[in-house]
Amino acid sequence: MVTNITNLGRSGVSDWLIQRVSAVVMALYTLFIVGFLLFSSDLDYATWSGLFAQTWMRIFSLLAFVSIAAHAWVGLWTVTTDYIKPAGIRIAAQSIIILANFVFLVWGIQVVWGA
Amino acid sequence: MSNLQVSLYRYNPETDSAPHMEEFEVDTQGRDLMVLDVLHMVKEQDNSLAFRRSCREGVCGSDGMNMNGKNGLACITPLSDVVKGGKLVLRPLPGLPVIRDLVIDMGLFYKQYERIQPYLQNSTQPPSIERLQSPEERDKLDGLYECILCACCSTSCPSFWWNPDKFVGPAGLLQSYRFLADSRDTATHERLSELDDPFSVFRCRGIMNCVAVCPKGLNPTRAIGKIRDMLLADAT
Amino acid sequence: MSNMRSLSFDAIIIGGGGAGLRAGLELAKSGKNTAVLSKVFPTRSHTVSAQGGITCAIASADPNDDWRWHMYDTVKGSDYIADQDAAEYLCTEGPKAVFELEHMGLPFSRFDNGRIYQRPFGGQSKNFGEGGQAARTCAAADRTGHALLHTLYQNNLKHNTTFLNEWYVVDLVKNANGDVVGCIAMDIETGEVAHIESKATVLATGGAGRIYASTTNALINTGDGVGMALRAGFPMQDMEMWQFHPTGIYGAGTLVTEGCRGEGGYLINKDGERFMERYAPNAKDLASRDVVARSMVMEILEGRGAGEDGDHVFLKLDHLGEEVLGKRLPGIVELSKTFAHVDPAKEPIPVVPTCHYMMGGVPTNIHGQAIMPDAEGNDHIVNGLFAVGEVACVSVHGANRLGGNSLLDLVVFGRSAGMFIDNALNAGIDYLAASQSDVEAAMARINRWNESEEGETVPELKRELQQIMQNDFGVFRKEENMEEGVKKLAELRGRIAKGYLPDKSAVFNTARVEALELDNMMEVAEATAISALNRKESRGAHSRYDFPDRDDVNWLKHSVYFPVEKTLGKRDVNFAPKTVDMFEPKIRTY
Question: I need a labelling partner for C132 at 20 to 30 A (CA). Which of B160, C126, C496, C573 fits?
Answer without folding.
Answer: C573
